[in-house]
Amino acid sequence: MVPVSPDKPLLDELRSIIGDRARAGDFELGLYGKDGSVLEGRPSIVCLPVSTEEVQQIVGACRRHERPFIARGSGTGLAGGAVPVGDPVVIATAKMNKIIEVDLDNRVAWVEPGVLNLDLTTQLKPLGFHFAPDPSSQQVCSIGGNVATNSGGPHCLAYGVTSSHVAAIEVVLPDGTVTLLGDLTPEPAGYDLRGLFIGSEGTMGIATKIAVRLTQNPPEVRTLLLDFSDVRDGAAAVSAIIAEGLIPAALEMMDHRAIEVVEAFVNAGYPTEADAVLLVELDGLAGGVASGVEIVRRVADAHRVGNVRVAADDAERALLWKGRKNAFGAVARIKPDYYLHDTVVPRGKLVEVLEKVYRIADEYDLIAINVFHAGDGNLHPILAYDAREPGVLERVHAAGKAIITASIEAGGVLSGEHGIGLEKRDYMGMLFSEHDMTTQDLVREAFDPDGFANPLKVLPSGSRCSDSFGQHVPEGAWV
Amino acid sequence: MKKVAVKLGIDSEDLASCVACGLCLPHCPTYRVTQEESASPRGRIALMRQAETTGLIDQEFVEFMDACVQCRGCETACPAGVPFGSMMETTREALAEQTRYQPLWRRWGYRILGCPKILTLGSKVLAVLQKLNLLPSKLALPKIPLLQGRLVPSGRDVWLFTGCVMDAWMRDTHRAVQRVIEAAGAGVRFPDKQAACCGALHVHAGLGHEARRLAERTMEAFPGQAPILVDSAGCGAQLKEYGRLLDSAAAHEFSQRVLDVHEWLVNHLDALPPAHADAPRIAIQDPCHLRHVQQSHDPVRVVLARYVEPVILDDEGLCCGAGGAYSMLHADTAAAVRERKIGSIERAQVQEVVSANPGCLLHLRAGGVTVRHPLEIVDDLMRKDT
Fold it and tell me: Cβ contact (<8 Å) for B35 and A114?
C-alpha cells in the first residue's frame, strides 16, 4: 500500500492553482534540492508558476498550510541560498522568462525574473544597450537570482553591482500581497526598500517583475592579457593600476592552475607557463581607452610583466572572456568537486592574503585555485577535492574557515557577490556583533514576521525566535 | 510510482565529473523550451546519479531520459568536458535491455532501417498514398519520391556513404553531392546493400546490440583504403564513432577513413569552377552531429563561402529539434525547439537556409523553412555558367 503523503492536501491545492506544474515526483524533487553549491536539501513540492498571480496564490496556499517556501531562479547560486531546508515548497521562476517591455525613454526594461542575464543583453544589443552586471554564470543565471544575491561580475568594478542597475521591483511579499518597491523617477521618495530587497536572498519575498536599468554599449573596448612569472607581481600590479587613477571596466586575475584548466577548455592561447595572468578591460571613448592602455602597459612593465597581449578583435576578446567565465566549471578537470569562497579584502592586502590562501591549502593537503575579481579585491579561492575521498570534507571546511578568518583579519568581509545563503550563515558572527544581527533580523521580520520566506538562511538560527521551522540541516552542510 | 531495479552501469568517474555549475542549461534545446531541471543535461546527470545510487527507477525516470534529443550541445558548452552523450547512450541501452523502454513496435521500426528492400517498398507505398492524398497531413512527411533511379559510380577515388532513409527519400541529394565531388576531380563509388544503415538511430534508442550488428555489416561494405565521404552529419558522426562502439583495431581504422564530405572538399576547392559575382545570402544551420559531435562545422562555411555569402545564425548552434526519430516520437517538443530555430533564421534575413543533415532538412521543411543540403546549392551555382 502506498502511504498517503502528509503533503497531499497542500499538493491538491497547488494543483488546483497551477495544474501539473506542481510537482512531487520522487526523482524530480531531487533535482530541486541543489543549486551550484555543495549543499543539498530536498523540497516537499516544486511549483513552476508562469505569472505574478500564480506566485501570489502559491504563497497564499503555503501560508494556509503553514509551509515555508523558497524562490529559485536558474539554480546556479554558490552559497546554498536556493537549497531547500525545513521541507519547503520550491517556487521556481524559470518559466517566467519574458522581456515585457523595453522603455528607452526611461532607459529601463521590465523583465520577468526568469529571464537569463545574457539573453537580456543579447536582445538589447541591436539597440546599443546591455545589462551591466555580468557574473561568470551570466549565460545561465537569471535576473531574479541576480536581484536575490545582488550579483556582481567582472564589470561591476566600473559599473557597480545589481543594486545600481535595478530601478523597481514588483514583489510578492511573504504575506501574499503584491507591491512595487522603488519606481522609475530619478529620485524616489521614502526609504529605499528596493535597495533593501536586493540581496535579501529570498527572505523578504519573491520578485515577479523587475525594471532593470539599461547601460549604453561603450564605443570603444580594449582587452589586454598580461602574464607574470610571479603571482605576487600580478597582485601588486592590480593595486598599482588603480593607484594611477585608472578604473578599468574589469580587472581579473587567474593563477597558474586556473590558466591550465581554462586553456584546456577554450584553447584561447592563455600562457600555461605563466604564474598568473591579469585580464584587463578598458572601455569608453577612443582617446581615453588609448591612454588607459598606455598606463596599464607602463604599470605592468614596472611589475616585471612578461607578455602583453591586446585582443585584436571582438572574436578574440570573446574567447578570452569565455575562458575566464568558464573557469569554475573547468576546475572539474583537476578534481570532481570544488568549494568556492567569495571573500573580499582591501586591494592593498591582496598579495598577503593570497599567500595565506596557498599556505592554508598546503596545510590541509588541498589544491587551491585562484580566479578572481582582483580590481575590487573580491577573492574567489577554489578548493578542489574529490568528495569520495574519506574525511576530505572536514579538511575542506576547516581550510575554508581558515581562509575566511584570514580575509576578515585583513580587514575584509565574508562575501563579495555570491551571498550568505546557508553556507556562510554561521560565519556572520565573525563579522557582526549580536546587536548588529538582531537589528538585521528585525528588518527581516518587518517583511516576514512568521519566517515563511526562505527560512534558516542568511542570519544564524536562534539569533531571534523567528526560526520556527526547526533545525533541519541538510547533509553536506557545514553550519 | 512503481519502482523497478535497474543497473545503468555508467562509469563512476564520468558521473562524478559534473559539478552541476549549470553552464549547459542554455545550450540544451529541451531546457530552452521547458525551463525545467528534468529537461536539462545537469538534471539528467543528477537523475542518473539517483538511479545508480538507489538501483531503482520508475516511469518518471524513463520519461525524463527519453525526452533528451541527444544533440550533445551540452558537451560543447561543458567546461569540465563531461561525456554526456556516452552516459545517455549507456543509460538508454540499460533501459532497453532491462525494462520495456523500447516496445516491440519501436524495435521493429528501427529494424526496418537496416532492411533496404522493405524500406524501399514501404517508401513506395507511402509515395503512392501521398499522391492519392491518403496520408494525414499531421504526419508532416516530406514529399517521398516514387521512382529514383540508380546511383551510377564514376571511379574508385572515394566512397560516398548512402544510408537508409536518406537514400530512400533523398537520393537526388546524393546525386548533387556526387557531381560536386566529381567536379573537384575525384571518381565516386557506392557501397552495396551491406551498408544499409549506419546504426545511429539504434544507438540513440539504446539498441546497442542492433547498432553493433549494423556497424560490423557496414564496415565490410567499404574495402580498401579510399576515404569514406558522408553527406549526412548524423551518419558521419556515427561512422566516426565505430572505433568507440566496437573497440576493435579494424573499427578504429575504419573510423579514421571517415570524413564529412565538406572536410574532404576544403582540400579540393581549387578544382571547383569559379564563383559568380552575385552571391546569395544563405544561412547555415549547423547540424548538431556536425558541430557538437564531429566538431567539424567550419568546412561547410569554407566550402559555401566560395559561392555564397554565408550567414551564421545567432543561436550558437542550438539544436533544431530533429534528432533522428525524436521529431516523430516527441513531436510537440521538437516543434517548440524548431520555433526557436525559425526565429533565429528570420532574424538572419536570408534567401535560403542550408543544413548538412537529412533529419534537420526534413524537420525544418516540415516547419515551412526553405532549406537544402549545402552541396545542392553549390551544385546549382557551379553549373550555372557551364
Answer: yes
Contact (CB<8Å) B81/A386? no
Decide: helix, strand or coil at residue A340: strand
- Note the pLDDT of residue B276: 77
**pLDDT-above-90 percentage for chain A:** 89
Which pLDDT score, from 0 to 100, does residue A477 have?
47
Q: HSE-up of A223 (CA within 13 Å, CB side)? A: 20
The reply to whether A118 touches chain B by the CB within 8 Å rule is: yes
Q: Which CATH architecture has domain A99-216?
A: 2-Layer Sandwich (3.30)
Q: Parallel, antiparallel, or unpaired: how do β-strands A22-23 and A45-47 relate?
A: antiparallel
CATH 3.30.780 fits B271-383, yes or no: no
Q: Do A137 and B16 count as a contact with CB atoms less than 8 A apart?
A: no
Question: How many CB atoms within 10 Å of residue A453?
Answer: 27
Q: Is A332 on the interface with B (CB under 8 A)?
A: yes
Q: Is the pLDDT of residue B175 over 80?
A: yes
Separation CA A159–CA A403 (nearest Å): 28
Q: Taking CA atoms, what residue in B is nearest to A3?
A: B1
Other beta carbons within 10 Å of B104: 8
* Distances in whole angstroms, Cα of residue B359 to Cα of each of B142, B166, B205, B366, B380: 11, 9, 16, 11, 22
Secondary structure letter of residue B291 according to DSSP: I
pLDDT value of residue A4: 54
Interchain contact, B60 vs A329, CB within 8 Å: no
Q: Please give the model's pTM, rounded to 2 decimal places.
A: 0.94
Q: Which grid cell sits at B8?
A: 545503468
Is CATH 1.20.210.10 correct for B4-98? no
Residues from chain B contacting residue A48 (CB–CB below 8 Å): 35-36
Cα–Cα distance for residue pair B7/B51, rounded to 1 Å:
8
pLDDT at B344 over 90: yes
CATH of A335-409, one of 3.30.420.40, 2.60.120.560, 3.30.70.2740, 1.10.3720.10: 3.30.70.2740
CATH topology for A220-328? Answer: Alpha-Beta Plaits (3.30.70)
* Mean pLDDT, range A414-435, rounded to an integer: 93
Domain(s) labelled CATH 3.30.70.2190 in chain A stretch across: 220-328
Residue closest to B3 by CA, chosen among B88, B45, B62: B62
Which residue in B341, B261, B248 sits closest to B294, CA to CA? B261
HEC per residue, A267-308: CCCCCCCCCEEEEEEEEECHHHHHHHHHHHHHHHHHCCEEEE
* Among candidates A95, A329, A387 on the partner chain, residue whose Cβ is nearest the Cβ of B23: A329
Given the DSSP bridges, would you call strands A89-92 and A45-47 parallel, antiparallel or unpaired? parallel
A336: nearest Cα among A307, A367, A357, A303 = A367
Averaged pLDDT score across all residues of chain B: 94
Q: Of the spans A91-95, B127-131, B137-141, which averages the highest pLDDT?
A: A91-95
Checking if the pLDDT of A117 tops 50, the result is yes
Determine the pLDDT at residue A36: 92
The third-level CATH classification (topology) of the domain covering A8-92 is: 3.30.43
In this structure, the number of other CB atoms found within 10 A of the CB of residue B185 comes to 12
List, by residue range, all CATH 3.30.465.10 domains of chain A. 99-216
With CA atoms as reference, report the closest residue to A237 among A329, A306, A336, A144.
Answer: A306
Contact status, residue A230 vs residue A275, Cβ threshold 8 Å = yes
Asked if residue A454 lies in contact with residue A68, where contact means CB atoms within 8 angstroms, the answer is yes
B47: closest CA of chain A, how far (Å): 7
8 A C-beta contact, residue A221 and residue A281: yes
pLDDT score for B136: 79
A19 touches chain B (CB under 8 A): no
| ipTM entry | 0.93
**What confidence score (pLDDT) does residue B385 get?**
63
